[in-house]
Amino acid sequence: MCNKRVLVVENDVSNATILVQVLRDAGFDAISTWSGREALTMLNPGVFDVLVVDDYLADQHLTTFLRRVHQLSNAPRVIVMQASAPTEKQIRHYTSFGASQVVQKHHLAELRQTVSICAAEMEALLN
Known about the structure:
This protein is of the alpha/beta class and 127 residues long. The protein contains five helices and five strands; from the N terminus they run βαβαβαβαβα.
């Protein structure tokens, strides 16, 4: 998984630090930002393979953010994370706005595995 770039969008600094470290330990090149708006400025085509975003963004509504990401050329795979286990209704809702997956934030092994799957999907698309 070397060189697969992941952007974590999480407004809680301690959560962001943990998530980035878990992903780095798994071999990803991971960085974070607290801001959805800042994340959008960082999402140049091909820069990130996977975007991991909290279901709460302090500076904009998540569905607006997802729509904007989905409109980008070569948009990364998007994983929405939330505090509780996602329901089928929540999964359908977020995927209708372009999310690839929805996971429970504090299940770090599941998150790591989901990032690996999404990164592999992006690699397959580009090859």
